[in-house]
Amino acid sequence: MPPAPLSRSGKSRRTTDSPISYFIQKALETPGLISFAAGLVDEGSLPVEEVGAAVAGIVADPLTGRAALQYGSTQGLPELREQVLQLVCDADGVRPSDVNLTADDVCITTGSQQLLYLLGEVLFDPGDIVITEAPSYFVFHSLLQSHGAKVLTVPLDEHGMRMDALESLLERLRRSGDLARVKVIYTVDYFQNPTGLTLAVDRRAKLVELARQYSTNHRIIVLEDAAYRELRFTGADLPSVKRFDPKNEFVVYTSTFSKPCSPGLKTGYALMPPDVMAPLLHLKGSHDFGSGNLSQHVASRLIASGAYAKHAEHLRNVYRKKRDLMVQALETEFRDFPAARWTVPAGGFYVWLTFDGIDTGPDGPLVPAALEAGVLYVPGQFGHVFDDTDSVPNNECRLCFGVATEDQIPEGIRRLRKACAAISAGKREKVKASV
Ligand SMILES: Cc1ncc(COP(=O)(O)O)c(C=O)c1O
After folding, report:
1. Of 161, 167, 241, whose CA–CA distance to 198 is shortest?
2. Which of 71, 337, 341, 398 has the maximal Cβ count within 10 Å?
3. Ligand 1 contacts CB of residue 111 (under 6 A)
């Protein structure tokens, strides 16, 4: 007799496999395929020697070796929390005291992903509302689904999340009495995953102002996901949204060593108000009572030795070159294809390609045509959610130039153009057959 069925939690039943697992699997299974799908970092520039030297330095002295190989604390290595605080404040051109922050307001996490998840555990009950950009980071959407949160979206333009639209949405929610359920406004404000777009400075200030204005019953938290901030390769850095929260009340800022250093370290960090930190640490205590201690010691050494800053500088050159190769290839291949347009990111590793009249969705014709041509992208549809107001666009693609090699980038775009041509030819055939 088969065993009785498993009785799963509501959360487990709400949690499904990531929609892009299929695409990652396809990339692994198909030899010769050029993948612009997975958001992985450049392989060749991973800091093997730097991390090797840091680990060797740590274990060279039994005292530091033992400290790194022992459990750490739930909140994270104090030196690293100090360094992270300084890193963010230097980038923002302020002293920690100017923005009411100390190392006690910093938590080291197992990647920034853990922070996104734990903050949800702190704040969301099923049915609570989270406002995100449309499109947004699809793994965050999956996580919201697990928490049972309801997602409402705000459109982007070339300057990031539209504040007029956010204000209208908040006003609408106030009038309908649903403001009480709004917990978080989420933005990936530097070189957004998936569009590559960046939030303009005036909108950063406005975002905090709106959160404050509509926090009538309870505080609406702005969750600033700055995962790609340090990978800017054009123009000057912009102040964080957190910079506009001088009392440390409204904004949780999260970032990571995954992108500007190594995802293998799986070490992220967050700056947050004290009354968010306390419950978050209780949950993190139950979850892992501290992120990987050795990784934290490595990150701390890399920062202290200057290797981290040097490496991030090197990466900016690596990704600038790759961005240029992708944009040049798009210009070359899609010059005579007016139905295509794309973003030119100033950092990070995503280009957002939009077609008029081509269905890029997972069930549309471009996915199989692209696979046939030997290239893979992420259907833009995955970055959208079906909320109350909108249907989901199905004419967009996320192209990641992070992991593809310099040789593969132009070739992959050539293959994508070929796939578009195959679809257009197919359409013409259909029209001919029907007349
Ligand atoms: C926007 C964004 N946030 C957070 C993460 C999580 O990264 P990690 O957990 O490695 O820090 C990613 C990873 O791709 C991302 O794209």
Report:
1. 161
2. 398
3. yes
CA of 189 to the centre of ligand 1 (A): 13
Which domain, by its residues, includes 341?
13-46+310-427
Please check whether residue 3 lies inside any domain of the structure. no
Same domain, 293 and 333: no
CATH number at residue 263: 3.40.640.10
Closest residue (by CA) to atom 15 of ligand 1? 227
Per-residue pLDDT band at 339 (split at 50, 70, 90):
confident
H-run or E-run covering 224: strand 221-225
Domain co-membership, 26 together with 73: no
> What amino acid occupies position 347?
G
Tell me: do 102 and 29 sit in the same domain: no
Q: Which residue, by CA, sits nearest to atom 6 of ligand 1? A: 113
User: What is the 113 CA–ligand 1 centroid distance (Å)?
Assistant: 6
pLDDT tens-digit map of 112-137: 999 999 999 999 999 999 999 999 99
For 282, the token pair is 């209780």
- If you measure from the C-alpha of residue 139 to the centroid of ligand 1, how many angstroms do you get, rounded to a whole number? 8
* Predicted local confidence at residue 427, as pLDDT: 67
Probe residue for ligand 1, chosen from 40, 41, 139 as the CB with the greatest number of ligand atoms within 8 Å: 139
Q: Which of 40, 44, 108 is nearest to 73 (CA)?
A: 108
Confidence class for position 22, pLDDT limits 50, 70, 90: confident
253 pLDDT band (50/70/90 cuts)? very high
174 CA → ligand 1 middle, Å: 32
Lookup: tokens for 20 = 């892009």
Distance CA 313, CA 87 (A): 14
Same domain, 301 and 346: no
